[in-house]
Amino acid sequence: MSLAYPKQKKISLRGAVQINRSSFFVCTDEQGKTFLKTGKDEKLQKSLVKDMIAKNPAIKSLLKQYKIKPSINTKTLKELSSGHMNETCNIAMGVYSILSESLRGGIDRAALKEASMLHDLGKVLIPSKILNKPARLNVKEREIMNIHSTLGYELLKTQNLSSQTLELVKYHHQNLKHSGYPALEDENLNSFIGIQIVSISDKYSALREARVYRRKLSCLEALLVLYKEVREGKILPEVYNALVKYAEMFDR
């Protein structure tokens, strides 16, 4: 496996891996050569995303439906790959390892790891003025923001990833009350515990980061925010308790 960037134009995304707690995209070129790249390579990002869009007409249709100009926000992926997506993966794998065998038995560990790194890929197509708005989003902006998980699913659907990885990416903003987004097509998903893990890890990571619209929350503050969702019946208590144990060990 090489870290060198190949000269071929056609690049495919094969998944994501974590090495020494750093995230990398696993890519292949036209000759089948496999190599690793971070999200900092803007040339590679654009090549990958353009290829994904070309392979799936549903992406352009979705952007047209919401009147979004098909522009690739490479700065977003660069920031995500160096922080949030990697931290989400660390948290998700920690929560997974703490959960009982009975709860995690039906989860594909490799798919969970991959999805937790790729879950926000769809944000590369969300306008930066919405992503970085220093205030509460209005109704229309929220609708646009909420399609990032579907966009990520449609982008990755062209890349030969496992069905469980795709399912976790698409529904990582769903919850036990099914009041998240997008709407569930099948309410009996085999990977619903996996969705809970990616979801709570994503939220905890986001709460622990400073954003343009709010300050960074402390570990306790972030856990209290998420505990409210447990009380509302949106998060499985066992998954939340596993997050608390992870935070006690690794996020003091």
What's the layout of helices and strands?
Layout: E1 12-19, E2 22-28, E3 34-37, H1 42-55, H2 57-65, H3 74-82, H4 84-98, H5 101-104, H6 109-118, H7 128-131, H8 139-146, H9 148-156, H10 163-170, H11 192-207, H12 219-231, H13 237-250
Antiparallel strand pairs: 1-2, 2-3
Helix pairs in contact: 4-6, 4-11, 4-13, 6-10, 9-10, 12-13
What string, H for helix and E for strand, traces the elements in order?
EEEHHHHHHHHHHHHH
Q: How would you describe the shape?
A: globular
Discrete helix count: 13
Largest sheet: 3 strands, antiparallel
- Cα radius of gyration in angstroms: 18 Å
Q: Looking at this structure, what is the CATH superfamily?
A: Hypothetical protein af1432
Query: Approximately what portion of the residues adopt beta-strand conformation?
Result: 5-15%
Overall average residue pLDDT: 87
- Which strands sit side by side, in order, in the main sheet? 1-2-3
CATH architecture: Orthogonal Bundle
Please provide a brief summary of the model.
With 252 residues, the protein is mainly alpha-helical. Helices cover 53% and strands 8% of the residues. It has helices at residues 42-55, 57-65, 74-82, 84-98, 101-104, 109-118, 128-131, 139-146, 148-156, 163-170, 192-207, 219-231, 237-250; strands at residues 12-19, 22-28, 34-37.
Short descriptors:
3 strands, 252 residues, 13 helices, 3-stranded antiparallel beta sheet, mainly alpha, Hypothetical protein af1432
